[in-house]
Amino acid sequence: MILVRQEIGEVLRDFRQQKGRTLRQVASRASVALGYLSEVERGQKEASSEILASVAEALDVPISTIMREVGDRISVLEGLQTFPDVVPDDLVAEVGPELSFR
Amino acid sequence: MILVRQEIGEVLRDFRQQKGRTLRQVASRASVALGYLSEVERGQKEASSEILASVAEALDVPISTIMREVGDRISVLEGLQTFPDVVPDDLVAEVGPELSFR
Q1: pTM for this prediction
Q2: Which residues on chain B are in Cβ contact (under 8 Å) with A48?
Q3: Are B86 and B99 in contact (CB under 8 A)?
Q4: Which ipTM did the prediction report?
Q5: B74-85 pLDDT per residue, tens
Q6: Could you say which of A65, B4, B50, B52 is the most buried, measured as most Cβ atoms within 10 Å of its Cβ?
Q7: What is the CATH number of the domain that holds A33?
């Protein structure tokens, strides 16, 4: 079963790390307990909508960006999104035949 | 403050109504209490990830579709997405000048 909280947790952690912030910094700025934020990031606790809004604000990331990223990740898990398993023909044409996987 | 649960509730209700199903049908199929599902749809209760997965399955809608729709709606609320306030030029060219708002 796909659990939204696990994806939300990973997305929040990824954005936090991209921004080079510590759990402590974000928890403090969002006024949530550090242990709680840590559990949310690990997908162990559901974040309430209020907490999610506070954490998003503390990260300077719009909630919509977080939710869309969550949707994108879940679509991969659901197998609804496929990735090309070969190099597309037009990319080969553009880059040329010297492109190879060594 | 933008509350994710309100958008999730509206999206779930919209999908349910699009599919012409009653609250009772979806609640029964998802094995959740009818009153609880009603509160979730009205944005009054947070749905746990497990409930969300069950309701999505009962609606035959991928969770990713729900979360992306939630992200899209929130982006409008956040003012991150704008809609054209005039008919785009290329649409006018395609449809012709007989298109007008009467």
Answers
A1: 0.79
A2: 5, 46
A3: no
A4: 0.78
A5: 999 998 765 556
A6: B4
A7: 1.10.260.40
